[in-house]
Task: structure prediction
Amino acid sequence: ASSEIPKTMSGVVIEKPGDVSVLAYKTDLPVPEIKKGEVLVKNEYIGVNYIDTYFRTGLYPSSSGYPLITGKEASGTVVASNSPRFSVGDRVAYLSESTYAEYTTVSASRVVGPLPEKISSATAAAALLQGLTALTFVREAAGIEQKLGISEGPWTLVHAAAGGTGSLLVQILSVMGAKIIATAGGKEKCEQARCHGAQWTIDSTRENVVERVKEITNGKGVDVIFDGVGKATFDADLEIIARKGLIVSFGNASGKVDPLDILRLGAKNVKVMRPVLFGYIVTPEEWERWTTELFDLIKSEKVKIKVHEVYPLKDVARAHTDLEGRKTTGKLLLKV
Ligand code: NDP
Result:
């Protein structure tokens, strides 16, 4: 089944890795064709994620080579379907490759929908990737629930806590009743982290994170650290982690963490893991479980989605510049 579909579309193409100048907005790209089990979505909102900058710079190599249409998530309307699960006209959100475009083909197994009326297309595109990341990392990677059952519950720390993923980590940890220390760059970002449920905040641009954590935890350190900043914070993580603690290192906003001398973990019996969202949403059951749980949290307003700015798709370079320049809080969206 399909509705009227044009032959060409607009989108953003990267010819070779580089700075934001390699993001080329074009209006004559071919509309992709769907294969078995796929749907074609006319995108409305496209989520910007830090990972998009890694594919742009080449920190993560593109498996399909270049030219590349980057982007990992979007929301919109199904305009053609080769799957019994979705019909033309369904409003959906999804994870896929090549979302910085007017149309994207998606495996039906990575689509959520039809979206409930209560969830706008902007919220859905803003929530999916970072929300699933926060949820699976808190529950599956860190196993916070089990840890909450033990004595006073764990100390947790979230870096870049006013960012897209950070603000969701804080809210989800808060819903679960954890003790949360948030680090963020600046007074306003710290204020936001506090509104999302962090009981303690540290302004990483003015304060000494190691000293402040020692103060707050009475010298014990934190039991679980969620670190998407990477290179700039990893050494401090090893100082502030408590004995038997877990460092969930999941990103490279400041660069890739330097190679680790494994002997450094012995001093406090520390665990380090480097999870990737896509490894937690492999089976249909996993996809169903985590997307249902995420959308329930949003519908019940236990988790709120804050959009920093909606940029026109052709202004994608400004969106990347703002994200990499630490100028944003919450989620950046592109509008087709
Ligand atoms: P954010 O909205 O969190 O933006 C990045 C933030 O990182 C900035 O706002 C800034 O906050 C902080 N930061 C610290 N140092 C730097 C620096 N040198 N340059 C730029 N930013 C810096 O982005 P996302 O939520 O999209 O992603 C956050 C992290 O999570 C990224 O590393 C990303 O790769 C990772 N991620 C990993 C996933 C996985 O599966 N492993 C899935 C999703 C995200 P401040 O000013 O407060 O320090």
The first strand starts at residue 8 and ends at 14.
